[in-house]
Amino acid sequence: MRESNSKTDSLLRYAFLIILGLVMVYPLIWLFTSSFKTNADIFGSSKLLPSTYVWDSYVLGWQGTGQYGFQDFFINTLKLVIPTVVFTIISSVIVAYGFARFNFPFKTILFSIMIATLMLPNASIMIPRYILFNKMNWLDTYLPFIIPAAFATGAFFVYMMIQFIRGLPVDLDEAATIDGCNSFSVLTRVLLPLCKPALFSVGIFQFMWTWNDFFNSIIYISSVKKFTVSLGLRLSLDASSAVSWNQVLAMSVVSVLPCILLFFFAQKYFVEGISTTGLKG
């Protein structure tokens, strides 16, 4: 009797999770199927599958409507995102290593200031940053994204790495020091291999946030030839009065695909990094 009840409970849990999963995934499914619909089908019918299939929406959407195609926006986004992610990981690890393993003057105050920056709303620092980057002639370039990332300005990522490194036994550092390693060697040879889950988490978060960033991109980038994917999608809506929504939705699918693939390929390390960050051992 108990065994049958446990099986029933398991089936109910699985059924609930499947239904919940379908509800969560349904917008992506609708996005994909609607990329093959006509405008009349998109706005005139609530059916998931199109009545009339449009097979060239991806080809035409990729070609674009002006001088620059969607492949240009994709390349621009990679030029922005990859250095930003790499510099974020490197700088966050170095700063977090200092806070987690070393004692130095004003450590507590500096750590408190860093955490306090998490409380600042983006709107309060938007104008000062714009004025600063304008005086440095960084506008209409990717430097406002890349250079700050090289100096560990992402307090969230630094804090995540600090908590992860604090969870690693200090005995490992001491053993490596006895074997002749200096501080840098301890970081690169001992701690970094163990920090792989946290590094993947930082990389995935920064990749998705930078890839999908529209607000900062539209503030700092003004040339169409330097537009990112998010700005390219917006440009396709301004290209003409008659919008081919199947092409816009098709390029939306293409735009979200890298984030989805990255998450699924790295989800093992991502989940492990999130679950272990903040635990002290």
UniProtKB/TrEMBL annotation:
Organism whose genome encodes this protein: Paenibacillus anaericanus
Limits of the ABC transmembrane type-1 domain: 74-266
Membrane topology summary: Multi-pass membrane protein
KW Membrane (keyword) present: yes
Stated family: Belongs to the binding-protein-dependent transport system permease family.
Superkingdom field: Bacteria
Annotated TM spans: 12-32, 80-100, 109-131, 143-162, 198-222, 242-265
GO cellular component, one term: plasma membrane
InterPro entries: MetI-like, MetI-like_sf
Cellular compartments annotated: Cell membrane
Keyword field: Cell membrane, Membrane, Transmembrane, Transmembrane helix, Transport
Protein name: Carbohydrate ABC transporter permease
Any one of the GO BP annotations: transmembrane transport
